[in-house]
Amino acid sequence: MNILVLNGSPKGEDSITLQTVRYWEKKFGQHFEVLHVGRKIKALEKNFAPALEAIAKADLLLFSYPVYTFIAPCQLHRFIELMKEHSADVSGKVATQLSTSKHFYDVTAHRYIQDNVQEMGMHYIRGLSADMEDLTTEKGRKEADNFWKYLNWSVESKI
Q1: Nearest to 8 by CA among 101, 73, 54, 55
Q2: What are the C-alpha distances in Å from 154 to residues 20, 126, 144, 158?
Q3: What is the predicted pLDDT for the residue at 46?
Q4: Residue 154, number of CB atoms within 10 A of its CB
Q5: Inter-CA distances, 135 with 4, 21, 27, Å
Q6: Mean pLDDT of 15-31
Q7: DSSP conformation letters of the chain
Q8: Angle at which helices 37-46 and 74-85 pack, to 10 degrees?
Q9: Alpha-carbon span 44 to 78, nearest angstrom
Q10: Which region among 9-13, 21-25, 52-56, 121-125 has the lowest average model confidence (pLDDT)?
Q11: Which residues, including other chains, have CB under 8 Å from residue 52's CB and lie 6 or more apart?
Q12: I need a labelling partner for 153 at 20 to 30 A (CA). Which of 54, 97, 126, 143 fits?
C-alpha cells in the first residue's frame, strides 16, 4: 500500500505528530512518503505538480497535524483548497488522519478533515486523536498500534 503523509505541521520533520508516523515505520516496517505541506505551502502554491504526482501514486492519504487552537493548521486548510482548485484526482482513494493535541476541540479539526475528504470523493476511515505525549507512555503506544492495525484491516477489507 502506498501511503502519502500530508504533514500539516509547520515544524516539518520536527513535528511531534510526525513522530508517531516514524514510530509506525519502525515498528511495522511500513514506508511512508511524507509531503511537508505545513512547511512548504508557499512553494506548493506556486507549483502544485509535485503534490499532484504524490497524490496520484498514493492509495492512502494520511493527514497528520497538530491541533493548536480548535482546528487544523491554516497551512493544511490551504493545501486542501489547493487540492480542490487543481482538481486532484482522489476519487476512490482512502483517507484518514492523525492529530496530536491536548484534546481541546480536536473533534472539530477531525470533522473538518472528514467533511473535506468525503466531499472530494475519498473513502474515510476514522482517525486517531493522540495526546502530544502518547508515544512516551505504554498506553499511548498501544493506542497507536491498535489504530495502525485497525487502519490496515479496514483498507485490506475495503471497509
Answers
A1: 73
A2: 19, 10, 15, 6
A3: 98
A4: 16
A5: 21, 11, 12
A6: 93
A7: --EEEEE--TTGGG-HHHHHHHHHHHHH---EEEE-HHHHHHHHHH--HHHHHHHHH-SEEEEEEE-SBSB--HHHHHHHHHHHHTT---TT-EEEEEEEESSSSHHHHHHHHHHHHHHTT-EE---EEEETTGGGSHHHHHHHHHHHHHHHHHHHTT-
A8: 40
A9: 10
A10: 9-13
A11: 86, 88
A12: 54
Considering only CA atoms, give the Rg of the chain: 14
For the chain, give the percent of residues with pLDDT over 70.
Answer: 100
pLDDT at 105: 75
Give the per-residue pLDDT at 132.
87
Report the candidate in 72, 85, 150 with the shortest Cα–Cα distance to residue 115: 72
Q: What pLDDT sits at residue 159?
A: 76
pLDDT digits (tens, 9 = 90+) for 120-140: 999 999 999 998 899 999 999
Cβ atoms of 100 and 17 within 8 Å: the answer is: yes
pTM to 2 decimals?
Answer: 0.95
